[in-house]
Amino acid sequence: MITDYSFSVEERFLRYAAIDTQSDPQSLSTPSTEKQKDLAGLLVTELHQMGITDAELDAYGYVYATIPATSSEQVPVICFCAHVDTAPDCSGTGVKPIVDRNYQGQDIQLPDDPQQVISTREHRYLQKKIGDDIITASGKTLLGADDKAGVAVIMDLAQYLVEHPETKHGRIRILFTPDEEIGRGVNHVNLEKLGAEFAYTLDGGELGSFTDETFSADGAVVNFYGISSHPGFGKGKLVNALKVAGAFLDLLPRAEFSPETTEAREGFVHPVRMEGIAEKATVEFIIRDFITANLKLHAMRLEQFARQAVGKFPGSSYDFQVAPQYRNMKEVLVAYPKVAEYAEEAMQRAGVTFKRESARGGTDGSRLSFMGLPCPDIFTGEMAFHGKHEYVSVQDMQRSVEVLIHLVQVWHERGYAK
Ligand SMILES: [Zn+2]
């Protein structure tokens, strides 16, 4: 345990959480909302105040900064990355973070809405956090611990390292991104400018969790074509594409192959949007599996249902397109086992039990990994994200900072040839 340092992660988190940084999937600009720069700009100012003079905010809303090496040895450049935006699913305006000191294991009633109770039955992790200081929102908004916990952890790491130059480490790059929650977090990242060899996102949940595997993901679009005719005179002629699409959705299995009925390592297909008129109807799907090769099998199976549906409506037709979205980061990380080994070693040194996890979703790290920057994810304590019941333990955030302090030293001691 690090005892000679008073962590700044809590006060930082409270300050960052109060700033509205919600991203907007409908926006075409980058960042999708200008207000994300309110936080990004503050982070640059705070980094400058720490003496990190090269901290800068670019036009796209990305923050780049360097913690200079304290060692003259050859050490790979490591990047720590977090996103400043919060999810569009829940309001992020007027967030009032509340600290429940020395939490005693009770359900947490949020003060601004009597309906909003964080129950320990639903949120079992809370039962392990007795004695911690738990931060929640007030009931009207999300908290934004996803990912302001990660932002605060990286900022506290920077402060620690600046104040403790005796800690030996190589060059460290800091990256804060906008628009992660709308899937555009790395669209405008400049990896050449970043100049890092390996990275870690700080965007994970429970104490000790380490994620180096994500889903692989495709999107599919199915178009059904009918035959339009005046409905008053449609007998024997009219074929309604909406009914074909309805029959198609009805053919989808209910007991498997769907997010409602799968867990752990099972994949699924999931309709996310449909629209249409009698002449043409479109259904959009996401396809997910940990094994990339399975995506093709899932798509073939999905297309079979489309074919069957069309078979029930003579005269109708369909087309079917699949496009890749992202890939399981493990396919990249498997070539760099030390990235995980060093994280495990750092957690051991911090007295934290390492828990390897697979994310049933994607992260910015999945895309960064395939762009050439291998990038698994480390815990921050953020829990129940994207909703009003979001919470984070101050002590979990502090342990996360501590893990990073050890991690940069492990990299320094062990080195790594890519
Ligand atoms: Zn996140």
Summarize the SSE layout with pairings.
Layout: H1 9-17, H2 36-50, E1 56-57, E2 63-67, E3 78-83, E4 98-100, E5 108-109, E6 117-118, E7 134-136, H3 145-163, E8 172-177, H4 191-194, E9 198-204, E10 209-214, E11 216-225, H5 241-251, E12 268-276, E13 280-289, H6 292-311, E14 317-326, H7 330-333, H8 337-349, E15 355-359, H9 364-370, E16 377-379, E17 391-393, H10 394-414
Parallel strand pairs: 3-8, 3-9, 9-16, 10-15
Antiparallel strand pairs: 1-2, 2-8, 4-7, 5-6, 7-17, 10-16, 11-13, 11-14, 12-13
The structure holds zinc ion (ZN).
Zinc ion is lined by residues 83, 146-147, 180, 203.
List keywords for this structure.
418 residues, single chain, binds zinc ion, eight-stranded mixed sheet, alpha+beta, 10 helices, four-stranded antiparallel sheet
Description:
The chain has 418 residues and is an alpha+beta fold. The protein is 29% helix and 22% strand. It contains 10 helices and 17 strands. The chain has helices at 9-17, 36-50, 145-163, 191-194, 241-251, 292-311, 330-333, 337-349, 364-370, 394-414; strands spanning 56-57, 63-67, 78-83, 98-100, 108-109, 117-118, 134-136, 172-177, 198-204, 209-214, 216-225, 268-276, 280-289, 317-326, 355-359, 377-379, 391-393. The strands form 4 sheets. An 8-stranded mixed β-sheet has the order 1-2-8-3-9-16-10-15, with helices on both faces. A 4-stranded antiparallel β-sheet has the order 12-13-11-14. Strand 1 and strand 2 form a beta hairpin. The protein is globular. The relative contact order is 0.19. The mean pLDDT is 96. Zinc ion (ZN) is lined by residues 83, 146-147, 180, 203. Zinc ion (ZN) binds at residues 83, 146-147, 180, 203.
